[in-house]
Amino acid sequence: MKHLLKEPSLTxxxxxxxxxxxxxxxxxxxxxxxxxxxxxxxxxEQQTLICLVDGANWASKLRFFEQSLLHHYDQNLPHLKLNQxxxxxxxxxxxxxxxxxxxxxxxxxxxxQMKKLSKNLSxxxxxxLTKLSxxxxxxx
Length: 140
Prior knowledge:
Blueprint: H1 8-29, H2 33-36, E1 39-45, E2 48-53, H3 56-62, H4 66-76, E3 84-89, H5 108-118, H6 123-133
Parallel strand pairs: 2-3
Antiparallel strand pairs: 1-2
Helix pairs in contact: 5-6
């Protein structure tokens, strides 16, 4: 039985992982320390450097370093001929939980005011206001 790391497919995968890690470290070395930690991944598609960032606010700050990043990669890896950068935001799966919100219903007093007001409005607006007033919280 062969050792797992001597399998050709695993060796290739390990080499690719090392390459992506080296690309990431090269990008991080071109950034200030406070921003480097937020560059979490790097990939290359055609002549575009794809930078994976751990938040939208950090992506906007990293955009200020776009030209210096391109220059840094061009100095160290000129054969890539990179001409642009795209920043993609990596969203933590825990942050993707959306809070389901329900619309606030008008109270009975507000519903009455809407009904009175609808009598003095154009038909379309009056109809919309009447429908909204009907959504009032039920009387208890």
